[in-house]
TrEMBL record:
Pathway involvement of the protein, from the record: Purine metabolism; IMP biosynthesis via de novo pathway; 5-amino-1-(5-phospho-D-ribosyl)imidazole-4-carboxamide from 5-amino-1-(5-phospho-D-ribosyl)imidazole-4-carboxylate: step 1/2
Annotated keywords: ATP-binding, Ligase, Nucleotide-binding, Purine biosynthesis
Protein name: Phosphoribosylaminoimidazole-succinocarboxamide synthase
SUPFAM superfamilies cross-referenced by the UniProt entry: SAICAR synthase-like
Pfam families, per the entry: SAICAR_synt
Keyword Ligase: yes
Catalyzed reaction equations: 5-amino-1-(5-phospho-D-ribosyl)imidazole-4-carboxylate + L-aspartate + ATP = (2S)-2-[5-amino-1-(5-phospho-beta-D-ribosyl)imidazole-4-carboxamido]succinate + ADP + phosphate + 2 H(+)
UniProt GO MF annotations: phosphoribosylaminoimidazolesuccinocarboxamide synthase activity
UniProt organism field: Amycolatopsis plumensis
Length: 280
């Protein structure tokens, strides 16, 4: 087993036979900086929620999962054996509600990724319909930048661009409908796709987790203000309150924020999957 990449949250290893081991750590990253304090169980919660969604979305699009159990014992529960993919250099984002960077873009331009929206929307509003708002995976600033659909067409070609938009919105819609039936709003989500060895467009990385999505309790939703977050927005908001300038190193997370984050990730996992989480 060869370690080939250390991401802000995930580590990748190359396994015998060419498969990739994707390991979700307990690290938390905000504003592209990994904070020094881990969140216990976070990696396992992300990995197992992703695995649950990958299985549920298998009739929509192929995914990279080979096995969630045939993994090294030291990474059991927090890793999956995956097919290697040639990743598409576009972050595929679906938005059903107005929040985060999408809210900022709308307030400035009245549109997100070139998609015009009705005037007068406020933070937390539900959009008339879900929209595809892709971003770059690589930019000169080191941060994701919004792309118009025409820019995606130029980057990866018409057929792939249209298929990515179609799949992103279908996955989001299917996930949001399931979550809504269990009291959870999925405001937006980020997906990543790649091509497998046969050239098949394949869903990779993670899917509909608290690191890649905004999850809100439906019974507390109230447009016009920030929403209660079952996702890492809670840690982002705390980090801003410290006066941190969003450059490395990040601040240590106090114990009460660690525990509240753990509880929020656990609650949304249990609501969505219907399973009871047993703390590690």
């Amino acid at each position: 087993m060869k370690h080939i990449h250390a991401g802000k949250v995930r580590d990748l290893y190359e396994l015998d036979g060419g498969d990739i081991l994707l390991v979700a750590s307990d690290r938390v990253s905000v504003y592209d900086v990994s904070l020094p304090t881990p969140i216990p169980d976070k990696g396992k919660l992300l990995n197992q929620l992703s695995a649950w969604w990958f299985e549920r979305m298998a009739d929509v699009v192929p995914n990279h999962v080979v096995s969630t159990t045939d993994v090294p014992e030291q990474f059991a529960g927090r890793s999956m054996r995956c097919k290697p993919l040639k990743m598409v250099k576009v972050e595929c984002i679906a938005r059903g509600y107005l929040a985060g960077l999408g809210l900022r873009e709308y307030q400035r331009d009245g549109k997100i990724s070139g998609v015009a929206l009705p005037p007068g929307l406020v933070e937390g509003d539900k959009l008339p319909e879900p929209i595809f708002t892709p971003t770059t995976k690589e930019s000169d600033t080191g941060h994701d930048e919004f792309m118009t659909f025409d820019e995606v067409l130029n980057e990866i070609g018409e057929d792939t661009a249209k298929r990515l938009r179609e799949l992103t919105l279908e996955i989001y819609t299917k996930g949001a409908e399931h979550a809504a039936a269990h009291g959870v709003i999925i405001a937006d989500t980020k997906l990543e796709f790649g091509f497998d060895a046969d050239g098949t467009l394949t869903l990779g990385d993670e899917v509909l987790t608290s690191d890649s999505s905004r999850f809100w309790p439906a019974d507390e939703w109230e447009p016009g203000r920030p929403q209660h977050a079952f996702d890492k927005q809670f840690v982002r908001d705390w980090s801003r309150s410290t006066g941190w300038d969003q450059t490395p190193p990040g601040p240590e997370i106090p114990a009460d924020i660690v525990e509240q984050t753990r509880q929020r990730y656990t609650e949304v996992y249990e609501r969505i999957t219907g399973k009871t989480w047993v703390r590690g």
